[in-house]
Amino acid sequence: MATSKITLGIIFLLLGLTDTLSPVSNNCKFPAVYNFGDSNSDTGAISAAIGEVPPPNGVAFFGRSVGRHSDGRLIIDFITENLTLPYLTPYLDSVGANYRHGANFATGGSCIRPTVACFSPFHLGTQVSQFIHFKTRTLSLYNQTKGKSPFCRGVLARPKDFSKALYILDIGQNDLAVGFQNMTEEQLKATIPTIIENFTIALKLLYKEGARFFSIHNTGPTGCLPYLLKSFPATPRDQYGCLKPLNNVAVEFNKQLKYKISELNKELPSSLFTYIDVYTAKYNLIIKAINIGVVDPFDYCCVGAIGRGMGCGKTIFPNGTELYSTSCKNPTNFISWDGIHYTETANMLIANRILDGSISDSPLPTQKACKLTKT
């Protein structure tokens, strides 16, 4: 293996990035987490609803494929670990489901806006509708049995937890990536207000259903994804090698999203909307790696996922010849897992920045967020 790949762990040390944060005592405790998003936080919805996310996805940590687009854990997994909660069960997975401490409505390929150009029919509006149905059915079952049935006591969400839970939203990457394939930079920027409007409608619906604690992740540097770098070789790059026009759009999207979150904090009483600058955390991984000069942040571990129409772990037969994707031996030496998604190591480092509050507006560790609703 090349020396430049062996030393990524050293880079993380130079960046001041450490292992996963340990749970902190003497803080309030979120009893549940409800998550909405795309493949960056999908813990098995696409596998349950459409088709398996095959190995080597998930193998490095879980020992098998568990519906995640990574070699192991996602950012949402590290967040629930830190909150001492179980990994989230996908809402669409009916086998062995346990919703006592929340549910995951994120689905790979999802967009904020409903559009046929997106990769999944489960756009954000649909995910929120699924949550409303989930909550309604939960309350109905509790009312029927007064909460005394084994099912209610064991695996069903508790009605009192809906207003105390943390609601995480991490979505928007696909809206920009899909749009960039068909629009100019200025045309794509012109769609942002409509995307933000759809996002706002979803947030207000959740608020109407009693949600009060929100963690809103902005969109990452989409223009740095190896998949898109290979797809648009002639597009201008920034000084670090990322697609400049697409990152310009991502920055503008995040600017408008941050302003909207600020407005919602003023508009909606007894709530806390925390804006999380995931863009900066992800971009810093890339630019610091390049500056140090010992790793290619645009290389990826699951080879074969890009350039031949292949997803990580899938096999195709073009012209009768079998082609299959393979995983590198040490995913910890990579930022990108498959050209689109991040490795477990990168997810851990980003999650640490979220959990310690260093990329939050205002700076706020996740474990302290439930203390700060307005009265």
UniProtKB/TrEMBL annotation:
Q: Which UniProt keywords apply?
A: Glycoprotein, Hydrolase, Signal
InterPro entries per record:
GDSL, SGNH_hydro_sf, SGNH_plant_lipase-like
Give the matching CDD domains.
SGNH_plant_lipase_like
What top-level branch of life does the organism fall under?
Answer: Eukaryota
Show the Pfam families listed in the entry: Lipase_GDSL (PF00657)
Signal sequence bounds = 1-20
Q: Which family does the entry's similarity section mention?
A: Belongs to the 'GDSL' lipolytic enzyme family.
This chain belongs to the protein called GDSL esterase/lipase At3g27950-like isoform X1
Organism listed in the record: Camelina sativa (False flax)
**Source lineage:** Eukaryota, Viridiplantae, Streptophyta, Embryophyta, Tracheophyta
